[in-house]
Amino acid sequence: xxxxxxxxxxxxxxxxxxxxxxxxxxxxxxxxxxxxxxxxxxxxxxxxxxxxxxxxxxxxxxxxxxxxxxxxxxxxxxxxxxxxxxxxxxxxxxxxxxxxxxxxxxxxxxxxxxxxxxxxxxxxxxxxxxxxxxxxxxxxxxxxxxxxxxxxxxxxxxxxxxxxxxxxxxxxxxxxxxxxxxxxxxxxxxxxxxxxxxxxxxxxxxxxxxxxxxxxxxxxxxxxxxxxxxxxxxxxxxxxxxxxxxxxxxxxxxxxxxxxxxxxxxxxxxxxxxxxxxxxxxxxxxxxxxxxxxxxxxxxxxxxxxxxxxxxxxxxxxxxxxxxxxxxxxxxxxxxxxxxxxxxxxxxxxxxxxxxxxxxxxxxxxxxxxxxxxxxxxxxxxxxxxxxxxxxxxxxxxxxxxxxxxxxxxxxxxxxxxxxxxxxx
Length: 425
Ligand SMILES: Cc1ncc(COP(=O)(O)O)c(C=O)c1O
What we know:
Elements: H1 3-10, E1 26-28, E2 31-33, E3 39-42, H2 45-48, H3 57-69, H4 81-93, E4 100-104, H5 107-122, E5 126-130, H6 139-143, H7 148-151, E6 161-164, H8 185-197, E7 202-207, H9 223-234, E8 237-241, E9 265-268, E10 279-283, H10 285-288, H11 304-319, H12 322-338, E11 346-353, E12 356-362, H13 372-384, E13 387-388, E14 390-392, E15 398-401, H14 409-424
Parallel strand pairs: 3-13, 5-6, 5-7, 7-8, 8-9
Antiparallel strand pairs: 1-2, 2-3, 4-10, 9-10, 11-12, 12-15, 14-15
Bound molecules: pyridoxal-5'-phosphate (PLP).
């Protein structure tokens, strides 16, 4: 049996039933290679993970060295140096007074732990999240996810979750749409959500600084400042889910740095270790210390190899000015896309920050009718030309361009000419 046949027979592939999947054999930088030696330009980074480039030499060397010393002992039963070093590093590079980290293996696990910490600290139980959000595929994280498409077949979900409207200016929930004049109505409305949809027992509000799976929605600059005022008024913690936005992706080490406020708890995963499984939630000491002995543990969390890889990864991002380069490269791609003249479909909006870029495809500019089938066809046509991108948005009509941040100018040229050819054909 070849790899595809074995997948069909033995792997529970719940995500891509209708798509003919690619088999990836190896990768370097922004290039995937299949078993026949055919190359593909990776503009999705294993879902926004390989920020420092596939096979990054510094990261691989650090992981190999750690593998020779110690692979596992459970970093919560015993102390290991890479965990201590990484926790210190994260306290230095994260905003505000975030200080103490708890490490897990994946994003959903870290959000789960952060939920528990916020409830423990506040003694409250309710939660507020955003529509269009995504926070993972476990029971609690799907409960916080504001997207029926992702939740289908898994309900009923956790009680105690209310949803505030996403700051989605292109499809403004209040039909205002201009952040200069709207008075941040969606942020203000959070006050109503807390007052009328909860029992005033809200532990935290969770949000992605740029909504990823929901279609690369970057809130206007003032949004989180207003949100924070509302939260402070109600004594509610602000939890930033930086799982997808962190580690340089949006042009800063963390996207929340550009939002004018600091979170009380921050969750990270994906790009933290450039592909080694690791996640983390971090909080100021007075919040983190609300956990009591025995409250929380993860067998694989804080794996020494993953932590060593994460340290090298962060060092690489810092030493090479990768976040700032991502901001510049993202602008080049956005401007390049704005210059294309699509045929039958319309680029409703080209948006995002850094190398977290969304192109919302619609069939009519005026009524903004989502065009998910065309978006899927565009992605398939790009693959024919050797370029891999993602799809997202509640309607499945947003092209997602999230390449390794090390993507070269030549590769950006290759992406843009493939996009132009496909969009204009
Ligand atoms: C913002 C956000 N939070 C949480 C998750 C869940 O992460 P994981 O798939 O590692 O559990 C994701 C995954 O896409 C995400 O984008």
